[in-house]
Amino acid sequence: MDDSPIEQVRLTVPSTDDPTLQVLTFRIWILGVPLCILQSALVRIATFRQQFIYISPVCIDFFLYGGCNLLARVLPNKVATIPGTRWSFSLNPCPFNIKEHIAMSIFVNSIDSPNMWWPSVVASIPLYRALHEEDKRSKGGLSRYQFFFIVFATIFAYSIIPAYFFQSITALSFVCWIWKDSITAQQIGSGMNGLGIGSISLDWMTITSFLGSPLVLPSFVIFNNLIGFIVITYIFIPFSYWSNAYEARKFLLFSTNIYDSHGQKYNVSRIIDSNTLTFNQEAYDKYSKIYFTTSLLYCYAFSLAQYTSSISEITLCYGRSLWQTFKKAYKDDDEQDVHGRLMKQNYESIPQWWFYSILLSMIGMAILVCESFASQIQLRYWEVLLACALVFLFLPLECVLEAIAGSGFTLDLLFEAIIGYLNPGKPLANMAFKLYGTEAHLVAAYAIYNFKLSHYIKIPPKIVFHLMILSATISCFIDFGIAWWMLRSIDNICQPDLLPEGSPWTCPSDKAMFITGVTWGLVGPSKTFYPDGMYSIVFIFALIGLVAPIPVWLLSQKYPEKKWIRLINFPLIFNAALVLPVGGMVGYWNWFIVGLLFNYFIYHKHREWWTRYNYLLSAGLDAGSAVFVLLLSVSLQFQNIYGANWWGLELSDHCPLSNCPTVPGVIIEGCPIIQ
């Protein structure tokens, strides 16, 4: 192939290479190490916030660009020798270039098939090209560089409103303002705890915090998610809730909390042995079973459906080509586009033993830790090996889906369910097993992302490998240190009921992890789901997911001329349920509107503008809003200064009755008593 078979890649990625450009320079070490430390610290800080901040590599890239250009101008062009050795290096060997820039981005922040184009990788390439290539603009127009900085500056200046002065505009729910005394109306209108009808957000961080930027995904991904969102949110959830399935009306419509039989938040301390941190069956029998909100129940159900549908989807649609790719992996005649041929021609591949040595040593270390602290971690060596085996099984499936559609899946629920059946009553074992598996899966997927990015820009694979190893080592220690410091320094962190008004340190992700640890680890799936629990219907969705892609595949084979049939993707449809309890409907609706506006209507009607500016717009919005919020966090919010004391400071949609049950007999503070 003379070029990529994917149109977005042809429009975005250069099909040339200059192997003489230097990648590893003194600038990488003098600037990259401090920024790697800073990036790791900021990411950890962001995870404690109510609205998680997705810090894309773009946020660091512009600091790299400015800093490296400054160093290229001020550093002397001379050779320095390391004392006591014969090693020497140039302080300023060459002008700052795009390959050096991306290599440094990989430092501070598998797939060779040309059809696996990785949309999120392609989205970042225009930024680098805008910074490093000569950009000829028409008279009166904007260069890509100017466009990016205008967007960056605009959203940076605007972010002070939703982040500091008027936090309530993150979710404006007009239905709640009209029907102030109706529980049902507020459940329908609330953008945070209800169905989100008539709600809107004026905050970019709210739109992207759990879903990512809608500008970087193909329109078919957004359409599939929209279908799933509408079916799950406006058919399954309302029908189950208002028909009072599983006593659902005793509880909230949308929440990640678990409840007891009286409609109160579940008191976990009543069913756990405080000495061994294991399950107390006798206390559980005296207290109550665990009850879910309808939204959390369907989140679990459709997560299982996504796993099984991914297996069917990829096997049916890509199984043959994947098998051929794997067979050709070590041969010289595999099909490659121009990017693959240039990489193979100019650079050495990474020896396989490099990967094997790291893999085996890390597995050995994990086993050593678990066996040495068996009573504290509650996890045994064979469970570590099982977690690794599951990663080996599901990583290729997830990466194929991510590479083609730009949207993959997490393995959290799968790991929780498996270890919950194998080792019930031990919540620490459940969380440790999940973390070993999911972290290995996420790191591996991100490594593939970086390799694909370097593949498009033609950076030597061995350099990318070394930079990622060093970055991971630094990040590990910084991440742990910052988390420890924040937990000891911020009063009442992760306790929303005790935090002052406007405080962002509510830790929604950690709360969700705690709930799943109790559900799948402490109590266990056998008592909550199958065979002894009331929610065994959840596992029926695994069968639904396995079967669902088959009719679509059969139709695509019967009507190959109808290309839209192939775009129906059930893993993406089921994916819509994954962040429903924590993401909020207001973020979803705005996400869909923005995504379809740019990646469908503008893409088809103004292709030239879209090609030039779309990904830069996404990068500018992400970078400007994230940089402002992080500066606000470390400057004012660490000092418990959250904004002016007025009703607009409240980080809610002012729909208090959306948090109320709708059946008699359940008494919740702040809710009317239903007779």
TrEMBL record:
The keyword DNA damage does not apply. It comes from the Eukaryota. One of its GO terms (cellular component) is membrane. Coiled coil: none annotated. InterPro entries: Oligpept_transpt (IPR004648), OPT (IPR004813). One of its GO terms (molecular function) is oligopeptide transmembrane transporter activity. The keyword Protein transport applies. Keywords: Membrane, Peptide transport, Protein transport, Transmembrane, Transmembrane helix, Transport. Its main location: membrane. The chain crosses the membrane at residues 26-46, 145-165, 220-242, 290-308, 353-374, 386-411, 431-451, 463-487, 534-555, 615-638. It is a multi-pass membrane protein. It is found in: Membrane. One of its GO terms (biological process) is protein transport. Belongs to the oligopeptide OPT transporter (TC 2.A.67.1) family. This is Oligopeptide transporter. It comes from Zingiber officinale (Ginger).
